[in-house]
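Re: How this chain folds, sequence and tokenised backbone to follow

Filed under: protein folding, tokenised backbone structure, sequence and structure records.

Contents: The amino acid chain and a row of whole-number tokens, matched residue for residue.

Body of memo: The sequence and its backbone structure tokens, given next.
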Amino acid sequence: MLLSREYLYSLVTYKIKGPLAALLRGLLFVFSLVYGLVVVILAGFYKLRPARVNCKVISVGNITLGGTGKTALVEYLAAKLSGKGNKVAVLSRGYKRDAKQPGVQGMGDEPAMLQKKLPQVPVIVDKDRLKASARAIKAYAVDILILDDGLQQWRIFKDLEVVTIDSCNPFGNYRLLPAGFLREPLSALNRSDIFVLTHVDPGQDTTGLTARLKQLNSRALIVESRHKPGGFSNLDKPDEILSTESFKGKSTIVFSGIGNPQAFENTVCSLGINIAEALRFVDHYDYTQADLDGIIKCARDRKLDIIITTEKDAVKIARLKFNHMRIFSLNIKLSITKNEEEFDRRLLKLHSL
């Protein structure tokens, strides 16, 4: 039986109940044991002699399926390091891209967004990171490579392994794929040098999560961060940036195709905006004109004159027609809120390695 992604999610989060659901979860658990064994063997094999490249390598990854905020951290690191005079490049797989297509479709939404926000930093898309590394060094003479989604890139030696952990849902149901959301066993976190807790709200108690991470890896630095809104970009007028107060008290439609839509929607609400309806698409969704027309119709039926989406989704719809509807993307910046000085020290130490 072929199960859809949505059905699988509902199954492993126990939203679907009954004898058949219990049987399917049992089967998924068996598959997860096989998957885990394969992952451990592969990771152990490549760890014996990882390939070294002729520059420093920082990996930014996560141990669970998407939505932990690693792309914002990649942007933060690339901007900070290049601002210190380093020649930096970002290497990305370009998930769900079509290499035969031009523009965003050929590059992938996250790399395209990063390239737009970091015009001074080359973003190279290739599922073979060793090949991409060689290209970056030859073409751009880079001295620091940032691997986007690099935790499972076992073949490459890394000078710094940074792992993002969603503070609200750090490990899902603690089970490996496909029975859960873990991409590797939790023991893999022992490879990490730095944990960056993301989506940490002011006043949030992270002592339990911090203690658990210290049990898993006592030597790693634990950093806390927030994703702060930085204004709204008008997709019809890219140079127009409105303040975060611009839509306070207004109602809007929001839509997103990201790993953690709830975090995006919570941020919109935190700005005093009323969400009349939240439309969710699967992560990395490739929007068609019909999709956007349907979103616009939904807004007009409710007599709403603005629509808000994410920066990642904005690059996916840029080629489509907005039919005189005002559509804005919410700009997000990652801010380190705890242990920033030590975090920066470890980053800048790469200069002298």
